[in-house]
Amino acid sequence: MKIDPRRLLDLLMVARHGSFSGAAVATRISQPALSKSIGLLERELGARVLERDRQGARLNEFGTALARHAQALESLLAQSKEEMRLRLLGIEGPLAIGITPITAVGLVPQALELLTRETPKISVSVTEGLDNEIKSMLRSRELDLVVSRLGVGPEYPDIVEDPLILAGWSLITRPGHRLADLPSVSIRALGDVQWVLPAGGSAFRQQMEVVFTTAGLFWPSSGISTNSILAIKAIVMNTDCVTIMSPRLVEVERGAGRLCAVPLMDVSALRPVGLMWRRGEELSPIAMRFAKVLRSVAGKDSDHIADPA
Question: Residues 51-61: pLDDT tens digits?
Answer without folding.
Answer: 988 888 889 99
